[in-house]
Amino acid sequence: MLSSTLGLATSDDHYGFLSMQFKDEQVHPPRGQELATLVWQSWKSVCGCRLSPQGAFPILGTSPPSLHYTDGNVIIFRPDPFVAQLAVCAFSKYTVHALLEEKFVGFEPEDQTLDIAGATLIADADDFLGVHIALKSLVEDFEQITGIRPAFNNATTNSTVPASATGVIVGSVGSKLIRQISAEKGLDISDVEGRWEVFKTAVIANPIAGVERALVIVGSDKRGTIFGIHTLAEQSGQSPYHWWADVPTKKHAAIFALPKATVHGPPSVKYRGLFINDEAPALVTWWAAQHNSSYYPLDTEFYSHVFDLLLRLRANYLWPAMWGSSTPAPGHIFFTDDPRNQQLADDYGIVVSTSHHEPMQRATNEWNATETGPWDWRLNKDNVTRFMEEGIRRMGNNESYVTLGMRGPSDSAIVGDDALEILREVFEVERQIFKEVLGDQKVNQAWTIYKEVATYYAAGLSPPDDVTIIMPDDNHGQILRLPTGNETAREGGAGIYFHFEYFGRPRSYKWSNTNNLPKVLKELLQAYWRGANQVWVINLGDIKPLEQPFGFAMDLAWDVSKFDFDMIPEYLRLYSERELGSEHADDVAALLMEFNYLIGMRRFEMVQPDTYSVLNYHEAERILARWNLLANQTKTLFEQIPEDYKAAYYELVFYPVVSGATYYAVNIGTGLNYRHAMERRNSANALAHQVLADFDYDYDLVQDFDALLDGKWRNIMSQAKLETFDTGKAKNWMNPSRDILSNLSFVQLRQNMQFSVGNLGIYAEGSNSPLDQGRWAESIDPSMPFTKSPAQLPEMSPYGPSRRTVDLFMRGDYRVPIDWQLGDIPVDWLSIAPSSGRLDVTAEEQRLNVTIDWTQVPEGYNDTVEVGITSTPSFYPYYDIIRIPVQNRKVPTNFRGFPETAGYISIESPHFQKSSSSPNNRTASETVAFVHVPYLGTRTESGSVALRPFHAARASLLDSKSAYVEYDIYLFKDNPALNATIYINAGLDTDPNLLMEFSLSLDDAPQNFTRVLGDPKDAGDVPPEWTDNVMNQVWTKKVSLGEAKEGAHTLRWSVNSPEVYLEKLVLDTRGGVKNSYLGPPESNMAGFD
C-alpha cells in the first residue's frame, strides 16, 4: 500500500513548494505517470480544485505547478503564497477519525436504523449515582437537541416500564438490568466485562417488556457507563464545551442509532484530568462577579461544571484549586470551601487528588501555622502527622489519589539539611497512616518529582513500588524525565504533570493560550511511548481560555492510536465542526492552524519589542503581517458566523486570535517605532499613535469578552499582560498587575534634518545607513553621496530572493513635500519600481522593489550596480546612491541542493536530498530512519525531522547513529572556516542513560556526536542552557565544519535518539548571517527549474 507524507513551505520571495515523501515496503516510489497522477490527486484535494492537470487553478493561479522527483521526495514548486496554507495530503496514510469516537448515531435514516429522538431513557434504579447524574444531563441534552423532553424510567426487578416503541437503555455491566438483557436477549457483554472505563453500544430488539427496539449502552464500570452517556450526547449534538464555551446545541428532529455494535475504550492513560491553578486574578474575580460579591468560594455549583466538563471529555482526575491568598486569607480549600465538594466529586465519578506539594488529601491552605506551628517535619512532626491523618480520615472510601511526600512552606523546598532522609521518614509515616485508618484498603498513591524533588529522585530517593511517580515538565512544555528500564514495571506506574500555563521563572504565562498543538503532541506522545501512562494531569490555570489544547490532550489520553502529527489539520477541522458547525469548519480550522503555528514561535508574554528583528530579513514586518492577516480573516469570518454561534466563536477563535495579533502589534509596533525614530523618520510618530490605539483596542477586546451573554464571563480575561520586560527587576518573572505601555518615541515633525544629510531618508533592507545618519558630523562623515554608511542592499543572485526592497522616507519638515527621482539604471536587466514620486504628509514613505531578469544577466557577473537618486527641495543639492551587489554565478547543471546566496545557506530540515536506513536485517517496519514530522517547527514552515520507529531507535544505538539525512550545498568561494547554526526543537534529556546527541559533518569527515544540552548543576534539574533559551522554543547550537573549498559539498545529519527533532540548519558562508530571532528564511533550492 503506497502512502505519503506532505510538507509545506515558502521561500522568502513567496515561491512555495510542497514536499512529499513516499513510503512503501513492497514497491519502489512512484515514477512517471503514476507519480504525476498521485501528485495531481493530492494537489487537487489540498486546494479543493476539481479540474484536470491541464486546467486552470481559480484559487492558486492560472498555471499548473512544476513537479520534480528525487530520492523518494516530490517537490512541487508553485510561485504563489497561498501554497503556504495548504495542509492535508489526500492520500495520507491516516484515515479520518471522527471527533471523538466511532459514530454510533447519525441523522439520516438507513436500513435498520432506529430513531431515538423520542425514545424513553431507561436505567437500573440501583446503578451508580454517577450514572444517574449523567442520565439527568442526557435528558436535558436531548430536550435541547430535539425539542422533546424524553421520558426517563428507573427499572427495578419488579417494575414495569411503560410501553414504548423505542428506548435508550443505559447501565453498567454489573447492573441487574444489563445482566437480564444479556441473559435473555443475547447481548454480548464479554468485551466490556472486567475492563477499565469501556463502553459498548448495540441496537437490540425487544430488550425488555414494553420496548420494541432500543439502543443499549453498557459500561464496564461506573465511568465507562458515564462516558457512553456523554458520548451519545456529543454525537447527537451537544458539545462537551456547551457550558464552558457556550457552544450552541445542534438541533435535530431525528437521531438514528446505527444498526451495529461498537466498543469504546479502554483509555490509553488510566487517570487523566486537570489542575486548577494560579486562579487569581481571573477565575476568582469572575466567579465572585457571578455572585455579586468581592469573593465567593469555589463551591459545588462551580465544581459541578468542572466535573461535567471532565466527564464529557472522558477525563476522570482533578487537582482542585489551591492558590493561597490574603484577599481573603487563606485562599482556596476544596475540602472546606464547600464541605459537599469532596462527596460530589465521588458521586460524579471524579478521582480527587491534590497538587504536587499537598500531601495526604489536605490543602496547603488548611495549615494554620499560628495554631499548629511551622510546616517543618523536623521541628513539628507530631502536628504535621496529625494533619495528614485527618486528611485520610476525611477522605474515607471516596475514590481518590493520595499525594505522598511533602515540600516546604508555600510550595518551596523542604526544610532540612538532609531532605532525602526526611522524605524517607515521611513516606514511612504516611504509609503507616493508611494502615491505621483504612486497614488493608488499597490506596492510589502518587509522588510528584517537581522542581528540587526531581534531584532527590536522581540522587536515589524512591517511594514504595506501588506509588505512582509523576514526572513533570519544566513548567514550559518540555518534560524533564520519563521512565527508563525497570521503572516502567513499577506497580504504581508513572505519569506526567504538564503545564498549559505557569506562574514562575523565567517568565509567567497566564493570560492566553500559547500551547502549540504539534509541540504538545510531541511531548505527550513521547510520554506515552515511554510508559508514563498512569496519570496525566494538565495545569490548566483558569480553564478558560485553554479549551482547545485541553480537549486535544484529553482526546489523546483517551486514544493515542488516533493521533500523529499529520492528522492535526483534520483534528482541528473536526473540532471546529463540533464547536462551530460544519458550514465554516474548514475556514475556522485554517485560522486555528495558523494560530497554532504563530504561537509556537514564542509564548505571548515572552514577546518584547526587540524579540523580532526590525532590521534583518523583514522579520518583524513578516511576522506582524501574518498576525494582521490572520486577525483580519478572523474578523471577516465573525461577520459570517450565524448569530447563535457568535459567542462561542468569540471565546474560542476571535479573542485568542485578535488579542494575540494586537499583543504583537503593540510589541512589534513599539520596536518599529523606536527604530524609525532613531532613523529620524516622520513615520515614527504615526507608529507611536498606532501603538497607542492598539493598546486601547486590546482592552476593548477584554470589555467585549466581559459583555458576552449578559456578563457571563465578566473578569475571566482580567489577567494583565502588557509591560516592558526588565530583566533587572527582582520580580520580572511575575505577571503585571496592570497593563502599561512604555518607551514610545517621537520626532519633531516641523524640524528639518541637518542640511548635510537631507530630508530624504533611504533604507536599503538590512542596512544601518539611516540609523548611522541619525548622528552626523560634516567634518568626519562624508555625504551627498554617503560613502561611509551607504544604502546598500544584500547580495542578489539567482538563488536568493527574487525581490529586494528599498524604503524612501521623509525625515524633515512634514509641511514640505519631497519630490524624488531615480537616475538612469546602467544595466537593462535590473528594474526598480517606482522610479519617481512624491512624499508628503499623506504618504510619508515609499517602498521600491528591486528585481532582476536573470536570463539577461551576463554569466559570471559579479559587481555592484549603482543607481543615483535626487530630491527637491533641499537646502544643499541632495544626491545619494543605491548600491545593489549582483552575483550571477551558476551551479553545475547536475547539482540538486542549496547554493549559497548573500553569504549564507538556510535549510529547513525536511528538505533533505538523501536519507539512509540503518544497516541491519530488520523488517521494513523496524528500520530506523529519519522521517518528516509535519507542523512541528518553530523556525520552519515545513516541520522537522526525527528518527522513527520510536522504540526501535531507542533500542539500538548503532542503528540510530547509523541513520542519516544529507543536504547538498554549493559554495561559490573557498571558506577557511565554515560554521553552522542548528535549530533543534526544544526538549530535555528525559533519559539519563540516553542523553541527546547530534552529529553534523561535512563531506567525508567522520561523525562528531555532541551533546545537545549540558549537564545540570544537580542531576534531575534543568540544564545550564535552560534559563537563557527556554523562551525561544528551540535550542541553537554552533558547529564548526572546518575548511570548505568552492564547489559542491554534502552535510550529513545524525542523532542518537528519536527525541532529537531537527528544525533548521544555517551556514554562515561569508559573514552573511545577520542577527534575528527566527534565523534567515530558507534558501531557494537549485536543480528543480
Automatic annotation (TrEMBL):
<dbReference type="InterPro" id="IPR031924">
    <property type="entry name" value="GH115"/>
</dbReference>
<dbReference type="GO" id="GO:0016787">
    <property type="term" value="F:hydrolase activity"/>
</dbReference>
<protein>
    <recommendedName>
        <fullName>Gylcosyl hydrolase 115 C-terminal domain-containing protein</fullName>
    </recommendedName>
</protein>
<dbReference type="Pfam" id="PF15979">
    <property type="entry name" value="Glyco_hydro_115"/>
</dbReference>
<dbReference type="InterPro" id="IPR041437">
    <property type="entry name" value="GH115_C"/>
</dbReference>
<dbReference type="InterPro" id="IPR029018">
    <property type="entry name" value="Hex-like_dom2"/>
</dbReference>
<feature type="domain" description="Gylcosyl hydrolase 115 C-terminal">
    <location>
        <begin position="897"/>
        <end position="1082"/>
    </location>
</feature>
<dbReference type="InterPro" id="IPR042301">
    <property type="entry name" value="GH115_sf"/>
</dbReference>
<dbReference type="Pfam" id="PF17829">
    <property type="entry name" value="GH115_C"/>
</dbReference>
<keyword id="KW-0378">Hydrolase</keyword>
